[in-house]
Structure formats: structure tokens, C-alpha cells
Known about the structure:
Oligomer: heterodimer
Number of strands of chain B: 5
Strand content of chain A: 5-15%
Order of helices and strands of chain B: EHEHEHEHEH
Strand order of the largest sheet of chain A: 2-4-5-7-6
Order of helices and strands of chain A: HHHHHHHEHHEEHEEHEE
Helix content of chain A: over 70%
Helix content of chain B: 25-40%
Number of domains of chain A: 3
Largest sheet of chain A: 5 strands, mixed
Shape of chain A: rod-shaped
Radius of gyration of chain B: 14 Å
Shape of chain B: globular
Amino acid sequence: MTPEATRRRAIGQILLLAAGFLVLVAISTASVLLVNKASEDSGRVVHTVEVENQINALLLDIRRAESAARGYLLTSGPEFLRDHEAAVATIPANVDKLAQLTSDNPRQVENIRKLRPTVELRLDQFAREMNFVRQAEPDSAVALVREAVAANSSNAIREIAATMRSEEDRLFALRTGNAHRSQQLSAWVTIAGSGLVIALAGISIFLVRRSASARDDAEALLRDNNLNLETTIDERTADLREANEEIQRFAYIVSHDLRSPLVNIMGFTSELEELRGDIFQRIASLARAQSSAPPAPDNATDSAEPVLEGADKQLSQDFTEALGFIKSSIAKMDRLITAILNLTREGRREFQPVQIDTRELIEAIVSTMAHQAAEAEATIHIEPLPDIVSDRLAMEQIFSNLIDNALKYLKPGVPGEIHVRGRTKLGFAIFEVSDNGRGIDPRDHQRIFDLFRRAGSQDKPGQGIGLAHVRALVRRLGGTMSVSSELNHGSTFTTTLPIRWAATNRNRES
Amino acid sequence: MSNPVTIIMIEDDEGHARLIERNIRRSGVNNEIVAFTNGTDAVKYLFGSDGTGLAHKGNALLILLDLNLPDMTGIDILRRVKENAYLKCAPVVVLTTTDDSQEIKRCYELGANVYITKPVNYESFANAIRQLGLFFSVIQVPAAAT
């Protein structure tokens, strides 16, 4: 899975969660608003019912007053008068209350405005009727009742009340509808919101499951890859180790098998040398016999070199020279084979990383070379050196070879100045061994690190092994080696080694 | 040597064999020397056709052994000799070109009596063999177990 896809998936999940929260918040807000509206709507419905009640109460009171007035007119019973007066007393209050209740509706205000004078007119008529009855003029009162019926004042009140009621009925229908709609809307919003939340949750679960399965797949793949990688590395390491061991074994066997014939060559050459002594002794005695010189006693000349003359002497010298070359060549070959053997033995040695006080190590090397240094009139300066973790014996071999070389290849007649310097850089310790010796031609800078190769005049003993050995050691210690030098201007050998070397697979032999 | 000790020389290089024999003789040792140039023949001689070594019951043997043989390693022969009831008392002198310390240690562990590295330098070689000859002339070799 690409990082881009991972990032997109993470953002998608965050967006989903955010959307879920938003939907929840919206549903809550909408619910609160809708519930408020619904309660408002029902309040209005209740209000409408109240208004209608009030209208009915007013009409009822007017009717009561009317019927009590009529009863009083017919019977002149004081209880009818009391009843009438009680009814009349509540009428203005009822009208006021109605006006107050309907003050929010302009139509009802208009109706109230019409209602008020008619009610007052009716009340006035009641008052006059009562007065006439009290003054015992029932005829005038009856006439007044007829007039009131003719004037239709009660009817006018009833009509206005009916108008008001129908208005309230209209409002009631309207408000009931509103309340119903609010409730329905609230229900729908809740249902839709819940559905949306459930859908979002479903998508989330799906995405989470998908990414979890993708993660499991990736983990399995990673594990497989790791296993494969480890196997590959193990195989390669084993191959390399095998190849290395093969080379070591090869060098070892070859050098051994080369030695065997060398023993024969050397042995029989020496036998020849002895034969040569015998042969020339006989030649000498034969020559003496021919020249009839007094024969020397046999025993006396046995061990001594026979006295030869002219051509015989030349022959003997040639013989000696040839044998000498053969023997010196054999000796050289033996040294080379021994060197190869030692190198392969070194290559097999296991390195042990230990903490090394570098300065102490170099000082110890220098003190063992004090005699050589004095002979060469050289001084060795040791500057501050970084301590490192490495193989002690390898370090000793590296620096004793470098310092030994520096002492060996000084310019004759010039006091030697040898400096050992050190510094650290990026986890590596860099050591320099520099001298003011005879230097190395830049053309030979690579050659000197090759086995059995040397540079400059071959006036010093050596096999051409030291630097090859040093470079092999430095490489095994995970470092590098270089030289900078000019003919007649000294040389500087730079060794870069890891400050903390740990034995790695490459160097671990089975 | 008091009783007739037979020197068994197992050496694949005939040149070496000749040089060794010559130098042993020069040191004044005149015992019989039986030379083998490969391991198979030497093993057949030492252990007989039945492989028990019974044939040498009562004989005094001294074995000069080279480790690098064409058909087997001298170490195998050394191990078999030292494991054999009749031959285990016979002194074994390992005379070889190998100077590997591991190899030397292994030979002594297996019961070799002397380990000598053949020096390339002939004088040292001749000297070593002559001293070995002197050694042969003074050591007592037991007869194989009866």
C-alpha cells in the first residue's frame, strides 16, 4: 500500500467521524427547535379554546341576565333581581377578559370594538328595564323589552360572538394543523438523522474492517519478506564464507604441497654438493698423479679443498656458482611459501574486539623498536591519539609494520622524523604514520600493497609482505588504507578504522 | 637397538624416503627399513589381511609416518595404530611438512610419540634425521603385545 493511499484512508476516516458528529449535532438542534415549536403550537391551540370558552361564558351571562330580568318582570321576585344583578355585574369583566385574550388578533380586536357598544347598549336596556320595574311601571318595562327585541340588541351580540367563534375555529384548525406538521417534521428529522448516523457508522465499520484486513495482509507480507531476506542474507553469507574458506584451504594446501618437492630439491642439491666435493677431490688427485708430484697423504687432503689448476679450477667455480644460485632460489621460495602460510593462518584467526588505549599500544611498539630507531638516528613523535575498540593483535601488527617501514626506508644520512597522528571523524578514527624518508613514486602507490611487490631500490631485506598484510588486516577490521607520498619527500600512510568495531558476520568464521 | 627392530617408513615422496633412509644410515642405524609410498599398502602390512595386526605379534616395530599421503591421511593410520591392541606400543614418529599447531596438537593427542617438521633447509633436515637415528639407536622398543 502506498503512503499516499494510507494518508487518504486516514483522512477519509476522520471526515466520516466529523460528518457523524455534525449529523448528531444537527439532529439535536433540530429536535430542540421543533419541540419548542410544537409546544408553542399547542399553547396557541389551548389559547384558542380558552377564547372560545370566554365567548361562551359571556353569552351565557348575557342570557342569564336576560332570563333573570324577564323573571323579575313577570314575578317581581327579589331573587330574580339578585340573579340579574349578579349576572350583569360579571358581564363587563367578561368582556374585558375577552378583549385581553384576543388583543393579539386584529380581527378579534375589531370584533370586540363592535361588541363593546352592543353589550353596553344591552346593559343600558337592562338598567332601564329594572328601573321601570322598581318604579312599578311594568308596562314601560315590557315596552322596553319589546323595543329591545325589536332593536335586536341580543341578536347583534350573538352574531358578533358567532363571528368571533368562527374566527377562533378557523384559528383552531390552522393551529392544530401547524402543531401536527411540527410533530411530523420532528419525527422525520429524527428518523432521517438516525438513518444517516447508522449509515455513517456502517461505512466506518466497513472502512475499519477493510483497513484492518489490509494491515493484516501487509503484516503477513512483511513477515514473509523479512524471512526471505534473512534467508537470502544467510545464504549469501554462507556462500561468501565458503568461498573464503575455499581460498584459505587452497592457499594452505598449495603452499604445503609446494614445500614437499622443495625439500627434495634442496636435499638432493646438498647431496650433489657433497658429490661435487668428492669428484673434484678425485680430479685433483688424478691431476697430481699425472704431474707426478709427490702425492699428498690421503687423510691430510680429505677435508680440505683440493688444490686445482687452470680449467679444473674454473669448472669447480662454475659448479659452486650454479649450486649457490639453486640454493638461494630455494631459500627464497621457502620464505615466500612460509609467508603465504602465515598469511592464511592470520586470515583464519578470529578477531576479538577489545577497548584499546591506542597511545599506550603505539608507545609499546616504539619502545621495542628503540634500537632500530637509534641506529637510524630517527626520533618518533607520538601525538594525541583516539582510543578505539578493535582487535589488539591486529592493531599491533598494523602499526609495527607501518613504523618499521618508516624506520627502514629513511633517507641515508638524514635524521629521521616519524610522526604518529590521530583524529576522529564520523565514527572513524584516522591514524597517520608519516616520515621524512625516501618516499614512494606515485606510480608504485598501488603496487606496494600487493603481495610480494616492493618499490624503489631493493637495498633492504624484505619479502614484500608487510603492507599487503597490513591492508588485509585493516580491511578485516572494517577500515581502509591509503598512502600519499612523493619520491624523496617522505610518505604518509593513512589508516581509517571504525572507532567501535564489532565482529560482524563477514569476519566470523564457523 | 638390542632386538631386531623393524623401521616402517610410510612416505609417499620417494625423494624424501631416500633422503631419510640415507641420513638414518649415516647415523649408524642398520636396522631393516620397510618403506611404503601409500597408505593402503602400509595399512595392509601393519594390520595384515584380516585387519587385526595379529601378524606382528611379538615383533618390535618403529613407525615413521608422513601425514600427507595420496590415498589417506597419516592421522587415520596413527589413530588405527594406537587403537590396535598389538601395535599401540610401537613408537610413532610423525615426520611431515605440516607445521600447523592444530595438527601437531592433534597428533600428540592421538598418541604420537614424536612430531618432527621437515625443514626445507637440507642441513637442518639431515641433522634432524641423524638425531632421530641416534634416538633410534638408544630407545627401547617393546615387542608387540603377545
